[in-house]
Amino acid sequence: MNTAVAAPETDPLLAPVPPAIQLKGISKAFGPVQANKNISISVKPGTIHGIIGENGAGKSTLMSILYGFYKADSGQIFVNGQETQIPDSQAAIKAGIGMVFQHFKLVQNFTVLENVILGAEDGPLLRPSLNKARGVLKQLAQEYELNVDPDAVIENLSVGHQQRVEILKALYRQADILILDEPTGVLTPAEADHLFRILDNLRKEGKTIILITHKLREIMNVTDTVSVMRRGEMTATVQTSETSPERLAEMMVGRKVLLRVDKTPAKPAQPVLEVENLRLTDDKGVERLKGISLEVRAGEILGIAGVAGNGQSELLEVLGGYAEATGTVRVNGQPLPLSGAGSDGQSRRARGIGHVPEDRHRAGLIMSFSAWENTIFGYHRDPKIQTGPLMNNAGIKAEAAAKMERFDVRPPNPNLSARNFSGGNQQKIVLAREIERNPDILLIGQPTRGVDIGAIEFIHQQIIRLRDEGKAILLVSVELDEIFSLSDRIAVMFDGQIMGERLPDETSEQELGLLMAGITDTAHAHMPAAPMAMTEEELQKAAEAEAEAEAEAEAETAPADETPVNEETDAAAKKPESAESADVVELPVPEAKPFDVPDKSETKTEIATEKAPEAPQPAPPAPVAPSIEVSTAPVSVEAPPKVTESISLGSLSATITQSAPQRPKTPEPKPVAKPETKQDSEESDKDG
Ligand SMILES: Nc1ncnc2c1ncn2[C@@H]1O[C@H](COP(=O)(O)OP(=O)(O)OP(=O)(O)O)[C@@H](O)[C@H]1O
Q1: Residue 532 — very low, low, confident or very high, per pLDDT cuts 50/70/90?
Q2: How far is ligand 1, taken at its centre, from the CA of residue 549, in Å?
Q3: CA–CA separation, 232 vs 61, rounded Å?
Q4: What CDD domains does the record tag this protein with (predicted)?
Q5: Which residues lie across from 490 on neighbouring strands?
Q6: Which of 84-93, 147-156, 459-468 has the least mean pLDDT?
Q7: What is the Å distance from ligand 1's center to 520 Cα?
Q8: Cβ neighbours of residue 41 under 8 Å, at least 6 residues apart?
Q9: φ and ψ of 572, to 5 deg
Q10: What is the mean pLDDT of residues 189-211?
Q11: Is residue 28 within 8 Å of residue 72, measured between CB atoms?
């Protein structure tokens, strides 16, 4: 008798689909810090999988391992059921994985097309690659609502559009699995809505998305499943439909978290900050502040709402001593110089003005300096810190350790460089420095950007505590939730002007949305059901329609109002010369200098018509003098590293030499151009 049994024929359609991504037992340590401990996770294809966790929980590290940015100490990676080695990002791209980092890696003075093909050119001649990319981009734009002008230069695009370019880059490389690290941290609500529509479209087309975010609302709205990380471990994975924001917050932090701000009504006293007719024109001749007047009293929080780029940043920069302006500003009744002597950041701090800048990397911290050094910047000439030529290092370190403890900075190690802390912990270092100085007025920009839910609760409590102690607080945030829950009064900025002021209890997101679009007659304006869900284009159209209607109505009695400048179109019109046609092009200098320090750095990029050298290698630290100007023999500070990176595009190559960003007084620092490269040293800036 023939006992052989024929193997059952498996119908490939009925075979179980392997996970798009499966990680098994991934571990990774940075020196003594165990960033990932034996992590296993499985993500179904065609789904959006959220990853949440406190700052420093190890989310970015895990995803950087998956993208080949870091090498795991142990563990396996499976892509579509196949064990896959991912030693570098090229291998990740080959495996169909794309990543959009928190800090974009676009070359600022290249066009969208040039950025998209960079590193994925079809041959030495650029033209065919550019033509092919143009066609693909057109198709992707139609399929996924990823509209971007292919010929626009990156530095002229809004943050939301730059992010679309990052997504386009990944899709152009045929990524089926897309990792997004904190993608909405820098987006306006409308931009975030647009992004989620894009992600939904991608999911419908069968792409798999891994989304790292601190925003539980996003997790609840867009993900299918969610994993929670805590202190390097994966503690739970749940179906989104079977959980709640409260439950997720508790799983993340290990205790119940108050998801709303608990505060009593404000008791405003005397005016601390008085601003009249503040005007600022930038170096391109564009008027960024058009006669701002406002007042902040002791014991109250004035929240400034607005779509990013409408002058809020410039307002904070002028008041914080980073940019010069005209007008009148008084602090505690005394005039504040708006240019020349006494208008710098240190003088502002000496006048009792604390400042948490919107961008901690460019203006809040010196990334290569240790945490303890960063806790005194801006206050380093204070006699309590500096006696004669000497600084009390031991005292500063002890104080820094105590501040880090109070602000729950993890790890609470003052000797670690700022760049080796996770984003949220870097933010806590800046907040600790500014809040603990007990300022009369605190200027605070985007206080909880990239910060976890437990830390948000803590930061909000600190802001309220300062207010209740009688301090004046000027808050700028693109998070309407944050504006609503913290502010005692809300002013809305549009196109360099204050469009109106409202009390949080007497307004709505809809009304603020209209003001943010420049529509002041909110009572009569057509109110869309959910203006915050409008796209930028829709917001712009709404503003234009309103302006048109107003102009028509006023035409008979008065001259029509000046049409608001559309910065984006305006900027896009000033396109620099194409890189292809230029022999030598200077990349924009990152002009961010956190404090008044002697400018000893240089940033220069040359694009020469020659083949690029091998993979970029960070140069050893350059012999640049430390950036604090003190004659303090005992202070031992790390010199800002000089990094040289090379990139190539067809026959063009570029070398970027860059040391710690220094910043003269300019209103809007440009982001540092960074091509997509793997960092050699894992001790370097984690954000790449
Ligand atoms: N390049 C590095 N060198 C040294 N330590 C690092 C490096 N990158 C990350 N770490 C440390 O590893 C831990 C995990 O960091 P990771 O950035 O993965 O956290 P995260 O969950 O992404 O945090 P966040 O939400 O704040 O972005 C942190 O303690 C961080 O300080």
Answers
A1: very low
A2: 52
A3: 9
A4: ABC_Carb_Monos_I (cd03216), ABC_Carb_Monos_II (cd03215)
A5: 303, 502
A6: 147-156
A7: 44
A8: 21, 22, 23, 62, 227, 234, 237
A9: -65, -30
A10: 89
A11: yes
How buried is 358 (Cβ within 10 angstroms: 0-12 exposed, 13-18 middle, 19+ buried)?
buried
- Atom 28 of ligand 1, residue of closest alpha carbon: 56
Separation of alpha carbons 686 and 69, rounded Å = 10
Query: What pLDDT does 262 receive?
Result: 82
For ligand 1, atom 29: residue with the closest CA: 56
Please state at what angle helix 509-516 crosses helix 536-555, rounded to 10 degrees. 70
| Mean confidence (pLDDT) of the chain | 75
What is the DSSP pairing of strand 21-30 with strand 177-181?
unpaired
Tokens of 319: 């008041």
**Extended beta strands in 200-286, E state:** 208-212, 225-230, 233-239, 271-281
Which residues does a 6 A CB cutoff place in the pocket of ligand 1? 30, 33, 35, 53, 55-61, 411, 420-424, 452, 682-683, 686
Give the residue, 467 or 522, on which the prediction is more confident. 467
465-506 pLDDT per residue, tens: 999 999 999 999 988 889 999 999 999 999 999 999 999 999
Is the separation of the CB atoms in 319 and 491 below 8 Å? no
Ligand 1 centre and the CA of 60: distance in Å?
7
d(CA 686, CA 186): 18
Radius of gyration of the chain (CA): 26
Alpha helix ranges (H) inside 173-308: 189-204, 216-222, 245-253
Ligand 1 atom nearest the C-alpha of 411 is: 29
Distance CA 33, CA 232 (A): 9
Range list for CATH 3.40.50.300 in the chain: 21-253, 267-352+439-505
List the Cα angle 535/130/119 in 5-degree steps.
90
Cα torsion 535, 533, 497, 473: sign: negative
Residue nearest to atom 19 of ligand 1 (CA): 56
Q: List the one residue out of 309, 316, 313, 359 whose CA is nearest residue 569.
A: 309
Of 627, 620, 623, 662, the closest CA to residue 644 belongs to: 620
| Residues 473 and 261 sit within 8 Å (Cβ to Cβ) | no
Q: How confident is the model at residue 239 (pLDDT cuts 50, 70, 90)?
A: very high
The rounded distance, in Å, linking the Cα atoms of 488 and 252 is 30
Contact 286, 280 (CB under 8 A): no
CA 162 to chain centre: 12
Q: What is the DSSP letter of 144?
A: H
* More confident call, 12 vs 377: 377
* Contact between 496 and 327 (Cβ < 8 Å): no
| Protein residue with least CA distance to atom 8, ligand 1 | 686
pLDDT, tens digit, 9 for 90 and up, residues 42-81: 999 999 999 999 888 999 999 999 999 999 999 999 999 9
**How far is the C-alpha of 283 from the C-alpha of 323, rounded, in Å?**
11
**At a CB cut-off of 8 Å and minimum separation 6, what does 198 contact?**
144, 145, 146, 164, 167
Instruction: For the domain made up of 21-253, give the CATH fold.
Output: Rossmann fold (3.40.50)
More reliable by pLDDT, 568 or 412: 412
Q: In angstroms, what is the span from residue 430 Cα to ligand 1's centroid?
A: 17
Provide the residue type at 611 as one letter: K
Question: How far apart, in whole angstroms, are the C-alpha atoms of residue 67 and residue 92?
Answer: 5
Give SS3 for 130.
helix
Identify the residue whose C-alpha is closest to ligand 1 atom 24: 55
